[in-house]
Amino acid sequence: MRFLLLIMLAVSAxxxxxxxxxxxxxxxxxxxxxxxxxxxxxxxxxxxxxxDIKFLSAIMSKSPFFENxxxxxxxxxxxxxxxxxxxxxxxxxNDYKFDIIPLxxxxxxxxVTIKIENNCFVDIKKATNNAHIATYxxxxxxxxxxxxxxxxxxxxxxxxRQKSIKxxxxxxxxxxxxxIKRGDNEYFALKQxxxxxxxxxxxxxxxxxxxxxxxAEYKAFCYPLTHIRVTSKFTYKRWHPILxxxxxxxxxxxxxxxxxxxxxxxxxxxxxxxxxxxYGKVTKIAHGGGVVSLYAHQSKILVKMGEHVDAHQVIxxxxxxxxxxxxxxxxxxxxxxxxxxxxxxxxxIVKLKDGIRVKKSIKIVHNLAKELPxxxxxxxxxxxxxxxxxxxxKNLNSTVKIVIKKREDIHARVKLPNAxxxx
Length: 423
Known about the structure:
seven-stranded antiparallel β-sheet, mainly beta, disordered N terminus, 13% helix, Nuclear Transport Factor 2, Chain: A, Glucose Permease (Domain IIA), single chain, ten-stranded antiparallel β-sheet
C-alpha cells in the first residue's frame, strides 16, 4: 500500500487549456489587467515573491499572450517574458495563482511566392493566414517600393522565419530576403545584420553630404567598474541562486568587493535614486534616445534625482542590498522600457540622434542578376522560383490547445508537440 501511494504521488498532473492569442492593451498595467478580469489585485500580489514583481513591468504594450476564458471568466493566461520564460496565471477554486514557467515555441522557416490578384496585403494573407508578413515586407523596402501601386500580375516573393506556438504566429516575423517584380522593374532585398541591402533595376546611389550635423550625438558606453569580473550574464532563463528556480535575469552581474566605486556607463540625468524591493539601493540614469541604465544592490548611493552625471563619474558603491547572495553590481539597460542586453551598449558607439542628410542619384541597371554579389545572386535566383509550398498558418482567431504539465520535482512547463520547423 505504501509503495502504491509513492507511485501515485510521483505521477504528474496534466491539464490542457484552450487558448486564444491576444495582444496587451496599450497603456494597461498588470494591475489594470487583474481588475479587468475581476481579480483581487491585493490578494494576488501578496503571493508573488518580491524578486518577481519587477518582471510584471517588463510586459510591453501590444505584446502577444494567450488567454483561456471559460464561462466568461479568466481560467488561465500565459504572458511571455522574452524568448525563454512566461508568466502563468491559473484559477484554483476562487483564487488565482502566479508562477513563471518555461516558454516553448517553434521557429518556422518558409518561402512564399505570389502573383498579385487583388493587392499585396490581401494576397499574402490569403496564401499564408499571416497578416504580419506583408506589413513587415513593406518596412523592408521602405520608400523604395510604393506598395499601393503594385497591381495584378506583379510578383512578390518573400523568405522569412517566424516564431510559432501551435501554428499561430508569435512575435514579429523576420524577413530574410524578398523579391518584387513590378512591371519591368525588379527589387531585391537581402538581410545583412540588422539592416537590409536593397538592389534594384533603378539603383539608388548615395553620396554622403553633411548638410547639418546639428543635434548629431554619438555616445560610447563604458564599463561600470574599473576591474571587470562578470558573474552572471543577461538571459531570459537563469537558475536563481536564492529562489532555486528558473527566472529571467535582465541584466549583467559584476562581482566586486563591498565599497568598490560604481561608474555611470554614459552621461545622462538621474531619474531615480532610492530603494527598489528586490534590487535594494538603486540608481537609474536616462541617457537620451530612450536608453536608461539601472545600477542595483548598492551599499551607498552618491547621486540625487535630477542630477546630471558624466560618463565614468562615480555614482555609488558596491553592496549587497535587496535580494542578493553577496556584494555585486547588477547592471540593467532598458530602451523605451524594454530590457535589453547591456553587452550591446558597453564599449559600442551608439548614435542617439541623426542630423546627417545625403544626396541621392539614380542609375539604371539593365540586368539585376549580373549586378549582384554571389551570395545575393543565389538567394535572388531561389526567390524568383514560383514556390507554392508555403506553411499555412492558423487563423489568428483560432483556439489552440496548449498542454501544461506540472510535476512535484520540477516546475510548470509548456509541452508542445513537434510541428513543421526547427525547435
